[in-house]
Amino acid sequence: MAEATLQAERLDDPLVVAGRELGSRLVMGTGGAPSLEVLERALVASGTELTTVALRRVDPGARGTVLEVLDRLGIAVLPNTAGCFTAAEAVLTAQLGREALGTDWVKLEVIADEVTLLPDPVETLEAAERLVADGFVVLPYTNDDPVLARRLEDAGCAAVMPLGAPIGSGLGIRNPHNIEMIVERATVPVVLDAGIGTASEAALAMELGCDAVLLASAVTRAHDPVRMATAMRHAVQAGRLAAGAGRIPVRRYAEASSAMEGRID
Amino acid sequence: MQIELNGQPRELPEGTSVAELIADLPHRGVAVAVDGVVVPRSRHDQERLTDGARVEVVTAVQGG
Question: Which of A119, A149, A213, B62 could form a disulfide with A160 if both were Cys (CB 3.0 to 4.6 A apart)?
């Protein structure tokens, strides 16, 4: 690893979710990769320590699985409830994920329709309450709504994961002001989830004060997933460092950085 | 008896257990629900399927 990267990591605290330390602030999804081989190389390049998977009906003919890849790399698995439209479906899917993967962590995702894939706030909150009561560590995918984020936190969620833009859209962060408001009020980690298209947007999420970024398509559907995974790793570190460094105030006019005194005539 | 396995009809001998149904599948990463309720692995041997049961067998796949 390059010396600069080592120094950057020393300047930052680990991300802590529900008492568990994670060395990387980039959470990766595994959806959309052209092959498991490309996915594996991209995951290594990203430096991620926590990675989402979906749960689907068993295909007896499937060869090689994403779990084999994650086991081999020693990356923790975070089952999601992608594709669920109701709290009841999400709760059952979360329970299946816990049984299948031996983890009580779940990325809660309850969508409203197949066109926008936007979270259904009512069903998401209901599912979160039921899963927390059932002993889950709940990380909900949510709208960029500060009120809903607060309600999810009050329900006992271990983090809140507002979207930057719709899943897979690559539209970036459409309402940075709302993300800032969520960050200001949250006492649990805020993970910017969905909408990221390129590295500068991941860096912006961290500059806005988010604790981590979760992305999949931006890497897995990039022309060169391994290169983009590397870019995202650096972007999340750079954004985090910049947020902690304290940016200069924005000015209307210039302010010289070279002294005006002592100039030649 | 006939059950529904992952949305498809399936003929099984009377009294087939969950363990027998999924015997050919890998143990890691698989979970079973019968009629909308998860059957924990510790109960796969004694849980007998009944005619008309709706069984879901799922595993982890790539996903965001």
Answer: A149
- Model pLDDT for residues A18-42, shown as the tens digit of each residue: 999 999 999 999 999 999 999 999 9
Q: Could you give the number of structural domains in chain B?
A: 1
Closest to B29 (Cβ–Cβ): which among A101, A168, A216? A101
Whether B25 maps to a domain, the answer reads yes
Residue B19 domain-assigned (yes or no):
yes
Interior/surface letters A147-175, b for 16+ CB within 10 angstroms, e for the rest: ebbbbbbebebbbbbbbbbbbbbbebbeb
Interface of A with B (CB under 8 A): 29-33, 36, 39, 52-58, 60, 65-67, 77, 79-80, 82, 92, 95-97, 99-101, 167-168, 194, 216-217
Average pLDDT, chain A: 94
CB contact under 8 A, B60 and A66: yes
Cβ separation of A58 and B28 shorter than 8 Å?
A: no
Length of chain A: 265
B64 is a domain residue:
no
Contact yes or no for B63 and A54 at CB 8 A: yes
Residue B12 sits in which domain range?
2-59
Give domain status of residue B10, yes or no: yes
